[in-house]
Design a protein that fits this description.
Number of strands: 0
Strand content: under 5%
Shape: globular
Bound molecules: zinc ion
Helix content: 40-55%
Length: 151
């Protein structure tokens, strides 16, 4: 009986909050992706250094989750697949920059390409990390009780 009440209380709390908060609740893929957390327990960090623009640690990813022990590189070459995500993000950014540039200016083709190039260069470290987080989230379910290297 007590458990039922607390579940109801939790549900009420979720629906009382603005939708955007519920979207980022612990246990959602969005929470794990945006905060760069382990997709299984959402406690351990994928990257120790939170700043993606530190050139020494931009590409340094933790091997396992410090909280649940999940091995992030699930199998050899697992993160090659993140390149597809990275490609999709790159196209999305390029289109966004192109459309924005044409809304506010009248750039030539070469000016558009330079703007896209600069935007992609600046977003590079974020795209790299985000694509790995998204890719990992496609394959690992939220399961806070699970322990061990296998997902
Ligand atoms: Zn974990």
């Amino acid at each position: 009986m007590a458990a039922k009440v607390s579940n109801q209380g939790r549900l009420n709390a979720i629906f009382a909050e603005p939708k955007i908060n519920a979207m980022f609740k612990k246990g959602t893929k969005l929470n794990s992706t945006v905060k760069m957390k382990c997709p299984r327990c959402q406690e351990g960090d994928l990257f120790d250094d939170k700043n993606p623009y530190n050139p020494k640690t931009t590409l340094v990813m933790n091997e396992t989750c410090s909280n649940c022990g999940l091995r992030f590189n699930i199998e050899a070459g697992f993160f090659y697949g993140a390149m597809y995500v990275s490609y999709a993000l790159t196209v999305a950014i390029s289109v966004a920059v192109y459309v924005t540039a044409h809304l506010f200016f009248e750039p030539t083709v070469s000016q558009s390409l330079i703007a896209i190039f600069i935007a992609l260069l600046l977003m590079g470290p974020v795209v790299f990390r985000l694509s790995r987080a998204l890719w990992l989230n496609l394959f690992v379910k939220y399961n806070p009780e699970a322990r061990g290297e296998k997902p």
